[in-house]
Amino acid sequence: MLFRKTFAALLVIGALTGAHAATPGHEVIPLYDGPGGATCDYFNVGGRVKWHHKRGDWKDINGVVQGPAPFASAIIESIDKSRVIEWDLTALARRWLKTPEANQGVALTAVPGRAGGSVYFHSREADDPQLRPRLVLEYGDNSRQTVAPEADVHLDCSTVQPLGKDKLLLAGRDTITAMRFVLNASAGDDLRRATLQLTTNAKQYGNVIIGVYELDPPAKELPGEPQLGIAKDYLLDRGITKDPDVLMATGFESALWFSDWSYVSPTLTFGTLASDDALGFKPLDGKALRVKIPHGGNVGLDLGYDFKGKTGSEPEEIYFRYYLRFADDFVSYVDGGKLPGVSGTYGRAGWGGRKWDGRAGWSMRGGFARTPEQGNPLHDYVTISSYAYHAGADDFWGDEWVWDLGLRGLLRRNRWYCVEQYFRVNSVGANDGEIKGWIDGELALHRTGVRVRDIPDIRIERVWMNVYHGGTSPAASDMHLYIDNVVIARRYIGPMRRD
Q: How many beta carbons lie within 10 A of that of residue 45, not counting itself?
């Protein structure tokens, strides 16, 4: 046993440090039961990562998504008596030991079509350690190992709050319990039996058959082949302004870079630089624009490219690309905020609590989410979105559309990303507007059926380079990010060519 303990390793969903999920080309995110962890709607609410299916994702013993056939099941009669319930997970545990990246945890729920009650189990937070969940491993040499779960949570749609710190776990017809374990990598092929043991609470609601399924959480897709565009013909964007479809491009190299824009709101929060070692900065290509959201403030950057003033007319569709790098200190536990995007507010409506108005204005700025707490596997990432003031909004504020295709909108701090947006306003009288977003040339957001205008005079007024903390809440500390190689064009731009 000493040998096994010495070589113990995480065989479950390794954190986003390079461990691959069961599907090639993916990185898995560990199940997390902290304050920003799993809920009915979200696999990780802190990182804005949604389940594919409300109330959790799993696969059955036949590999069927949300399938009915469990790996193991147990009949639990409603006798209002606390007792230990067991499931034989030997086959599943052996597969995890053979293929560590396949171990993503388990889901417990009522077997479809069978007794439909529900039951409470004691969680890993139970006061009495003897009542806590455990996976008992028995080996060929007659040794035993008892493994406690690293995370356990029940997903109850009657609340939006994470329930991972509850002392009881509910499983039944309308609720699942999810948990993950750390197994011993050195066990090899001598595992004789693996038994999941949970202790019921005395209170139970009807007879129930609880099945164990394999948890199948969302995974972040690894970089693939990027979609190339205008930029592929211009090494490091040199000369890209000569392209007939490019309206503006800047790499912030010139001392007069601000003349490329229609306005630059005067603040002391931004400037160009080529080095910034204290914040872990590495240049993309020469100088970049450094933006600071100051402690106690909200505004980091406010500048814009107004199409009518620059080109004589306003487009109905546009592509806008920039490179983005969040500094190590870009952390906010207080609130999220705004990033660059496009807009047609006309100073009248569609931003700052001024409700969208199809005859007055709209906006599609970017957004960033509040930083997940320490301990959350997504703490080192910034989740980006589009912050949309549009016809479908329910109130005076915009809607958050997370860039969640392939979870590509999870951006690690102090890494350059190519961020591109496309927006097309709707035809007057129709809900046929469209927005797309790409990260490093791969699609991260796509929404159709968007409506932002009811009259033809409402178009795309500007590219709005806005960096803002909140809401109204000021930043609790200085926060920095970097922007470089901005291009505005009539067709897709794509990542910068580097060789």
A: 22
Q: Which amino acid is at 227?
A: Q
Distance CA 422, CA 365 (A): 12
Q: What is the pLDDT of residue 188?
A: 55
Residue 34 bridge partners (DSSP): none
Residue stretches of the chain with pLDDT short of 70: 1-24, 185-189
Question: What b/e readout covers 145-162, taking b as 16+ CB neighbours within 10 angstroms?
Answer: bebebbbbbbbbeeeeeb
CA distance 283 to 289: 10
Burial annotation 265-304 (CB, 10 A radius, 16+ → b, else e) = eeeebbebeeeeeebebeebbebbbbbbbbeebbbbbbbb
Q: What integer pLDDT is reported at residue 268 of this predicted model? A: 84
Indicate whether this model's pTM tops 0.70.
Answer: yes
pLDDT at res. 28: 86
Give bridge partners of residue 38 from the DSSP assignment: none
pLDDT tens figures, 111-147: 998 777 899 999 999 999 999 999 999 999 899 999 9
All domains of the chain, ordered by start, with CATH?
A: 2-220 (no CATH), 223-489 (2.60.120.200)
Report phi then psi at 240, rounded to 5.
-65, -20
